Amino acid sequence: MSITQTRLISICIVLIIAISKQFQILYYLPIMAISLEYLNKNKIYLNTYNYKQLNTIFIAYVLFVAIERGRPFAFNQAIEIILNSIEHILFGFVICLKTSVYYSIIKKIKKLRNIELLKIIIFFNIFGFLNEFFQNWYKDKYIWQLSFDSKKI
Fold first, then answer.
1. C-beta atoms surrounding 53 within 10 Å
2. Is the distance from CB of 61 to CB of 94 less than 8 angstroms?
3. How far apart are CA 60 and CA 94, in angstroms?
4. Burial class (CB in 10 A: 0-12, 13-18, 19+), 78
5. Is the pTM of the predicted complex or chain greater than 0.90?
6. Residues 6+ apart with CB under 8 A from 110
7. How far apart are CA 109 and CA 106, in angstroms?
8. Count of C-beta atoms within a 10 Å radius of residue 36
9. Which tens digits make up the pLDDT trace of 59-104?
10. Residue 75: CA atoms inside 13 Å, Cβ hemisphere, count?
11. What are the Cα distances from residue 47, in Å, to 13, 41, 50, 106?
């Protein structure tokens, strides 16, 4: 997917967010958009990676979150928990993938060593932990509260 196509999908995502009133997602969309803009201007990203495939993965994840959090269809509780679990698994995949891409660009290397991958996984878990705090803070909830959207399998 080209950067132009990701921009068009971003507009659709903004509409989904506005209609579903899931405004906390608006904090993530600009970060993803700025990141994609940067990566698609980076010669290493364009020449080393299948950038169209990575663009698709990155923007498709945000689209999935917008749809899943907007809940256009009401499913039973078990399906909702499964969808939320899928969202969190994909979150881990996308963040680790994006971090790996940035790390390899910064270090100008094509293949990461195991220790580097371990550092990325640790970074992701710290980021995910802080993200849960942010979501509770944004929704004016007790920071340690486990909401329905936080339940995972």
1. 10
2. yes
3. 10
4. exposed
5. no
6. 48, 104
7. 8
8. 23
9. 999 999 888 887 777 788 888 878 888 888 888 888 888 988 998 8
10. 13
11. 28, 11, 8, 15
Q: Position of tokens 């899931």?
A: 22
How large is the greatest C-alpha to C-alpha distance in the chain, in angstroms? Answer: 47
Judge whether 72 and 21 are in contact, CB under 8 Å: no
Burial class, 98, CB count within 10 angstroms (exposed 0-12 / middle 13-18 / buried 19+): buried
Terminal CA-CA length for the chain: 32
Which pLDDT tens digit goes with each residue over 107-143?
888 777 888 888 888 887 787 778 777 777 777 776 6
Q: Measure the CA–CA gap between 58 and 51, rounded to whole angstroms.
A: 10
Question: What are the tens digits of pLDDT across the range 38-49?
Answer: 999 999 999 989
